[in-house]
Amino acid sequence: MSKIMPSSGFSLIWKLLLLAKCWRAQGQDSDSPIITYCPNNLKIDVPSPFQSLRVFWEEPTAVDDNGSMTVTKSHTSGAIFPADQTTIVQYVFTNSGRRSSECRFEILLSRTCDVLMPCVDNGLCYNNFRSSGECMLVPYSYTLCNHNVDTTPPQCVDVPNDIYETVELGIPRPAVFWNEPTCTDDSGKASIFSRSHSPFTFFTVGETTVLYTCEDTSGNINTCTFTVNVTWVDTTPPVSNCREDVALVIELGEAGGFVVWSEPTATDISGTAVLSTRSHRPGSWFHIGATTVTYGFTDASGNTGVCLFVVVVETEDTIPPTVAGCMLGGLKQTVGIGELGAVVSWAEPTATEISGTTILVSQSHSPGDFFPVGVTEVTYTFSDASGNTAACKFSVEISSVNTTFSSVCDNIPVDIVETVELGTNGTIINWTEPTCSDTFGNAAFFLFKSHTPPSFFTVGTTTVNYTCLSTSGKTSHCVISQLP
Fold first, then answer.
1. What is the DSSP letter of 20?
2. Closest among 22, 18, 144 to 77, alpha carbons compared
3. Could you tell me if 81 and 150 are in contact, meaning their C-beta atoms sit under 8 angstroms apart?
């Protein structure tokens, strides 16, 4: 058999694709990283002339719930290993909680005597084994044959720069894309032999090395790497459980009121959101109308969430009008025996209200009406714009008496006219009261006075009534008109 041994500077490169096997660290708990791929042990036969061999493998991988991990390793894929020796390769994955998991496998290179390549022109090569197991050449006549051996590895071209990706906090594994590198070689033929990751692969948070291996037609290989760095970033603002609008109803005429409410809170994907600003506190004073209340919440990344609600203060009129000039004592008048009744006049009552608008809704009688003998109730009803009502009630009593004797009102003032400034509601007016006497000299006094001097009169015409009663039971009625 014809053999030729290679020169001492020649290196043999072994390409290795290994099946998955996972070893877990002793004492690992549920918080430790999970090994998703770990190579099997490897035994490689190495031709005798070689003292070492470059070995490649697909690197172990792991995942962790916390996202970020660090990897320590005893050897890197593509390292040179010595022959006739077992080497332990170890990968340790450690997460942020200092929990770790380990992947371990062995590489054994065993030298053998083997034919490396054919030799032409009857060149002869013999193998002879000594007790030591080494391989030797036995001298023999042969013809030297030469072969051109391609030992130049291919080159990786257009290798991506390190990739830095940010992903929203809470998203565990983003997909990352890149343009794959290409392979070139002096022979003109080279291709990607293996890759640790492909574009659009999902990457966990942290730094991951991506490895590409190029191979030419002579079996020479070369590797290129770049890293994918995935970082969590929090751009999501806190979410508040903002409350509904708050309403307060106050009495008409009040300027505002104190309003209380349950303050809103907020949550955030980072777990922490604090109250940073607020425009008002519960129990603050609010004027009539709508006021916007603002709460601001901030997370650890400085993101701010806002809660807005409106405090509405409205007025309500629940107070009825105030009646003035109601003759609570009533009116009494006498007529001669046999008369059916009499015409009675009086100063009509008025009403005021905080809203400024009061109307006379109804009245049962008017001054100058005829009243029959007996007691008649007179009712005035006033209302404001909110529907609140107030009533004035008094009685008119007509009595039949002997009119042989009568009482007289003397010195009755003439009608009084006063002027007031425009926009003034009224004024105070004074007058000299009339006198009361009896036609037959009996004592007499005023039974009723609708007003006493001085009194306040509103703009308009007001009738002042006096009723004179003598000791003989005779009455007389006199009237004064006030025109402020």
1. B
2. 18
3. no
According to DSSP, the residues that pair with 95 across neighbouring strands are: 69
Kindly state the tokens that stand for 274: 């604090």
Q: What Rg do the C-alpha atoms of the chain give, in angstroms? A: 58
Tokens 């290993």 map to which residue? 81
Beta bridge partners of 299: 273
| Helix, strand, or coil (residue 4) | coil
Please tell me the distance from the alpha carbon of residue 248 to that of residue 289, in angstroms, as a whole number: 10
Q: In this structure, what token pair is assigned to residue 234?
A: 């929090």
Read off the amino acid at residue 73. Answer: K
Q: DSSP per residue over 274-304, as a string?
A: EEEEES--TTEEEESEEEEEEEEEEETT--E
- Dihedral through CA 35, CA 37, CA 38, CA 43, nearest 10? 170
Judge residue 265's burial from the number of C-beta atoms within 10 Å of its C-beta, 0-12 exposed, 13-18 middle, 19 or more buried.
middle
Strand boundaries in 96-204, DSSP class E = 100-112, 128-129, 135-136, 155-157, 163-168, 175-176, 182-184, 190-195, 201-202
Q: What is the dihedral of CA 188, 193, 199, 200, to 10 degrees?
A: 150
Give the alpha-carbon dihedral of 132, 134, 139, 140, to 10 degrees. Answer: 120
Q: What is the pLDDT of residues 389-433, one digit of tens each?
A: 999 999 999 998 765 555 667 778 888 888 888 888 889 999 888
Q: How far apart are CA 293 and CA 419, in angstroms?
A: 52
Residue 256 token pair? 């505002």
User: Which uninterrupted H or E stretch holds 336?
Assistant: strand 331-336
Cα–Cα distance, 427 to 424 (Å, whole number): 8
Q: Is the pLDDT of residue 18 over 90?
A: no
80, 13 contact by CB (below 8 A)? no
Give the pLDDT confidence of 40-64 residue by residue, as tens digits: 998 888 776 677 888 889 999 999 8
Residue type, 202: F
* pTM of the full structure: 0.43
Where does residue 185 rank: exposed (0-12), middle (13-18), buried (19+ CB within 10 A)? buried
Residues 221, 15 contacting (CB under 8 angstroms) = yes
